[in-house]
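I'm stuck. Protein, please.
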Amino acid sequence: MINTDTLISVQIDPCTLAATAGMLIECCVDKTIGPEFSRQTVVQLKEQGIDEEALIKASFNSLPHVNFQIPIGIVMTVATTLLTAATNKANASGAAWLTNAWTPALTKIGNLLIEAKDTQMRDDHFDKFGNCMN
């Protein structure tokens, strides 16, 4: 069964993860998601051999991409927050860049839902049209 807690694994740039964490801390309506996303980023990067010092010194796409495991519901929250951030002119170019980086994860979710025979999305995360409500 696929639901908002279903984990997916995405190949993504570590600097993109750090930028996403910062965006979630600053812009996400649910103020618990940003800090938890940040914590998970650090934990998963360390497990894959990338420490904070390497991340601080790195530029986008200078480090090898990592496998990042994330629940579908959080990817949807990332997408919703990016849409909100894109409406602010000061954030628009950064939001567009991050949206491009997260597109493979959204495509993966879409493909999983198309292939799924047993999909159960919780009402508290999605409205009647399937839009993520954070």
Notes: Helices lie at 14-27, 33-47, 52-57, 72-86, 92-115. The mean pLDDT is 86.
